[in-house]
Amino acid sequence: MSDTELLARCTTILPGHRPRRPAEMFSAMAAWCEANAISHDVYGEGALIQDFERKVAELLGFEAAVFCISGTMTQVTALRLAVAERGKAPVALHPTSHIFVHEGSNYQLLNHFDALSVGDRHRPWTAADIIGIPDRLSAVSLEIPMREIGGQLSDWDELQAIKAHCREQNIHLHMDGARLWEAAAGYGRPLAEIAAGFDSVYVSLYKGIGGLGGAMLLGSREFVARAAKWFARQGGKLVHQSPYVVAAAMQFDARLASMPALFRRTQFLYEVLRDHPVIKVNPAAPQANMLHLHLPVSRERALAIRRKLAAEHGIWIFHRINHGVLPDTSYFECYVGDNLLDTPDGRVREAVALLAAELAAAIE
């Protein structure tokens, strides 16, 4: 039986949100469009998209926002513009930045900007990491939260110090806010307060929101207008962007409202995991509704355990798993979404206990 077939038979799936089948998603979109008398935009012009851009801009406290079909295009374009304004000095990126890890060296191959890898890859930035850079910088790009290290957040006071330093030194401060919606509950602060002091912010419309794709870039009206022109130049402006906007807008408020409950569920999961020290958790305490779980077995052995729990107990523990730094170790990301929120407490405890027992048996 394939992994896809096993997953389909599982009654308990721990990570993420329940995916909607295309027919289900499109039906919901059609009903929402009918109820709200939605018309297509034409190359980004129209009430649907422009009202949604204004809504997101006001929520985060910015003058303007513009939709872009791709978060990858959004981020490098924003940083490219910041660099062009400041004599093409380099951009500071964390070693786990999405631009380094997942974008295929696009910033180099497409001549967008030069980048410096700054800080410890296993820790969020401190102000000292940025202040201590001897080079002149055009921009600093800070991810909130940092996905590749378990959803960690920069300490609030350190974040404010980074903002102040960038402002004093005329360094463009950009936020990779792909999961900013998740960070608000971890910080316990409004989104606008977190975003205050950034010159530009990118947010995703499909990760935490559950849309079909797409992103928004926020900043001053002048900066956003220039970015929009560059999106078009790069082929990022479709004749009708409405399907992507509808998919996000129709569930935007409900997804944001669910974030505190998802964070509390993450805290519950963390307490369950504390009873099973064979599973190591990063970070030390939840800072967003995601965790990294480190296992004392190889990736191959972890996959075999996943198959066994799925076949024998109907429990799906993780989707993807990575090799650990040490031999015969592995780790996976657990994004806490609707699946875990809707799973009874007892079933969560059972699933974690079964995983821990298999791990213990494997290392005896």
What does this structure look like?
This protein has 364 residues and is of the alpha/beta class. 47% of the residues lie in helices and 15% in strands. The chain is built from 16 helices and 13 strands. The strands form 3 sheets. It has a 7-stranded mixed β-sheet, sandwiched between helices. Strands 9-10-13-12 form a 4-stranded antiparallel β-sheet, covered by helices on one side. Strands 1-11 form a two-stranded parallel ribbon. α4 packs across α11 (221-233), α9 packs across α13 and α14 (299-313) packs across α16. The radius of gyration is 21 Å and the shape is globular.
Radius of gyration: 21 Å
Residues in helices, as a percent range: 40-55%
Major β-sheet annotation: 7 strands, mixed
Shape: globular
Detail the poorly predicted runs: none
Give me the secondary-structure category: alpha/beta
Overall residue-averaged pLDDT value: 96
Q: List the strand order in the largest sheet.
A: 2-8-7-6-5-3-4
Cα separation of the termini: 28 Å
Into which percentage range does the β-strand content fall? 5-15%
The number of E-state strands comes to 13
The helix tally amounts to 16
Listing every helix as H and every strand as E from the N terminus to the C terminus, the arrangement reads HEHHEHEHHEHEHEHHEEHHHEEHEEEHH
